[in-house]
Design a protein that fits this description.
The strands form 2 sheets. A 5-stranded mixed sheet has the order 3-2-1-5-8. It has a 5-stranded mixed sheet with strand order 4-10-9-6-7. The protein has one helix spanning about 115-125; strands at about 5-10, 15-20, 25-30, 35-40, 45-50, 55-60, 65-70, 75-80, 85-95, 105-110. About 10% of the residues lie in helices and about 50% in strands. A hairpin with a 2-residue loop joins strand 1 (about 5-10) and strand 2 (about 15-20). With about 130 residues, it is mainly beta.
Amino acid sequence: ADVDLVVDVVGFQWQWQFAYADRGVVVTGTDQERPELALPAGATVRFDLQSVDVIHSFWIPGFRFKRDMFPGDTTTFQVDVGTVTGSWPDTGVCAEFCGLDHAYMRFDVSVLPPEEFNAWLTEQET
């Protein structure tokens, strides 16, 4: 199916990386700062998920959907983001126990109007 945006998601002990390949933007979390997953409102987004080490599970409770990530495999799904905009700090999680610091494997989610999303991408490019 046609999608408006593809986000490559990499899970690793104990963080997340989000790549917006069409724009060359990569957002990687650290032990000091959660990464932000920004999405455009009203878009259909395909997530391509990979784990580099152990089993993780990508979960955004507001999407009412989670998907396991297995080392060596790419898991794909798509979501219609909807039109509600806002920021939900600390809402994305790994829902599969993945080791010692599993509880810290979290990320922020922002749904932005399309023009603000494009501005966010441009800001990340610099």
